[in-house]
Structure formats: C-alpha cells, structure tokens
Amino acid sequence: MHPGRLKVHGRAFTHIAEFVPELTALRRDLHAHPELGFEEHYTAKRVVEALKVCGVDEVHTGIGKTGVVAVVRGRRNSSGRMLGLRADMDALPMTEHNDFAWRSTKPGLMHGCGHDGHTAMLVGAARYLAETRNFDGTAVLIFQPGEEGYAGAKAMIEDGLFERFPVQSVYAMHNWPQMRPGTVGINRGAMMAAADRVTIKITGKGGHGAHAYLAVDPVLVAAHIITAVQSIVSRTVRPIDGAVISLCAMQAGDPGAFSVLPGEATLVGTVRTFSPAVQALVERRLNELCSAVALGFGATASVHYERIYPATINTPDEAQFAADVAQSLLGRDHVDREMDPSMGAEDFSFMLQVKPGAYLRLGQGGEGSCFLHNSRYDFNDEVLPLGAALHAGLVEYGMPLGDD
Q1: Catalytic one of 90, 318, 381, 396
Q2: Which member of 147, 196, 347, 396 is catalytic?
Q3: Which parts form a coiled-coil structure per UniProt (predicted)?
Q4: What residues pair up with 335 in beta bridges, in sequence order?
Q5: Closest C-alpha to 117, from 401, 377, 346, 294
Q6: ∠77-83-87 over CA atoms, to 5°?
C-alpha cells in the first residue's frame, strides 16, 4: 500500500508522506523488538535517536521510569500555549504467529496492539513540526511506557509530567482495525470503559467426592456465584448504563485428585463501566450477592475489588476540536463524531482526569482485519502519515501561527 492511496488533504500529510519509508522502517524495527511495560529500554533508545535526528528542541528521558518527552517550539510563542500529544510504547506478553520479516524476535512478546505504530506516528509528527514550526506555542510529545496494565500514564503524572510540561490540553489516538484506513472516530464523552479486577475467594469444607454431604463444596458455590453475578447487570444496572461483569478464570482443587472436594475456590474476572456511580453500584452488589450465595450453602465468600483504570472520558470542547481537525484532513464523511464507546480500557484516562483532551480512533483495517491482541495482528503502515499528520494538525490548529 502507498500513502498516496489515502484521500487526505493538507500540507502536513504531503510533507510527511515524503519520509514514510523511514517511519515504516522504525515501526517495523520496534515491532521486531517488543518490550513490556517499564522495560522499554530499546524502544526508548530508538525513539530518542529518532527525535534527535528530527531536530526537536529538547528530549527528556526516564519520566515514569522509561518514558520519553520531546519538546518542539513553534515559530512564535506569543500565545504561551502548550499542547500535549501522547503515544504508548509497550508490547504484550503473547506469542506472535505472523511470518513476515519484521515479526517479533522475542519469544512470548509481541506488538499485538499497534503501539509500535503509535510511536512511529508521533515520531513522524515530531519531525514535521520541527522542520516546519508552523505554530505559535510549544508542542509536548509524550512517549508513554506501560499502557498494557502497568498504568504508565499514572506513573508519568506522578513523576511530575504536567508540572514540568504544563500543557493546556492533551490528545491521543489508537488504531482501530474495524475501521477503514482514512477514517477517524470520536465522541464528546466516554470512549473507553473503566477496567476493574475482581477476585472472589470462596471458603468451604473439603472432603471426599463420594461423601459430599459431609463437606461444603466451594466448587458448587462458585458455580452458583458465576451464574448469579450476571443478574447484577441485567437486574440492577439501568439498561441505558453500560456495564459488563466477566468472571474469566477459576482455580479449585487438583485436576489429578478427581474425587477430592477442595476447601477453597477462587474466581477472577473484570468489571467494565463508564460512570463512577455504576462502578460503585456493581462493587457493592458483588459483595452482597457473593456473600449471600455462599452463606446459603454454608460457605463464606470475600470479594477483593481493585480499580485498575478509570474510564476514558473526552472533554466536549476538545473532542469537537479534534473532530474538526480530522475533518479538515479527511472530509466530513470520513469522521464519525458519535462513535460508540468500547468496553476496552485505556490508561490515557489518567491524563484526561488531570487535563482536558480527547482520545481518537484511527481506522487501519476494515472488514476481515485481525482485531487488537490477536496473534496475527500487525499495524497497517499505510496509515502512518495520516496519524502523524493528524497529530501535527492538532498542534497547528490548536496553536495557530496567524498572519506574519
């Protein structure tokens, strides 16, 4: 594929398209060398090398452990404005099943979510902004570690990210294989759900499977809890409020001891919600229902509820602005301004709790494409110049240079 096949308007896209081969080479190198959260040493090194070649004004390392921040100053700074752009850098603990030349060289690690592409797009934006500087203010380019369950955004914030770089707003985007290349999706509210971890420990009384009446079977209790908790969403949460409860793993007993009833069982799962009120409701009902079900069988149950990532909520003005920028590049028919939110989670949510901003989805696939976290997924290099141009457009339109 070639960037010329995308119908994109604007000088930024045309400019960036000239160095797409370099961005593609960087993206594929990162894909071949995946690293988990807070272990992105090679990735950060490659990013720093690329940023220095781009000619950015400042490069800061070690923010939030392995995070990198670049600063590009516009042709003028009379506005005093500062705008942030964020890309995530980490990979996933999964085995890749692709066979192309740039497949993962690390067994059990893979860029299965496209963070290699996100990083390359932001490097592309950095190069364009440093070469043109057609804006009035300061662009802050945030290369974040540990998005995949490590709360790297929170780590960067706690490490003084926004004290050192006091942006007025911050933006991020994520590739979306279910959308065609050359399209963007966004809305003015929730884009991604809160992700919580639930651990339910059931304590009964072990015994012999042939004499179950002398035991209190925690496996039976677990089975009833698995079924009962699904009533929380269907019978407690309002239908217009989104929520998902999934109990995804169970541990009890020894598979080799087929006639031994264990004394304990553990269930582990996730809860996804969009509002704090629904989140609190689900947590309360889980505690009440699990305890009551267990008590009915003469067992006990405890619920450990961990709030991992908050919901990713766009601020309305910034979401509308980002959609306008996307529309200027792609046209009205290629920007979905009322995109349905996803029950997936994203730790850019921590940044949006501190600063106004917006999270966009960038089409990269279409019908039949592998979805994220699939062992045969790969980022579509065709959209590299579009993502970079969209990043750059947020800076140029957000901090316009005006008339000389």
Answers
A1: 90
A2: 147
A3: none
A4: 184
A5: 377
A6: 140
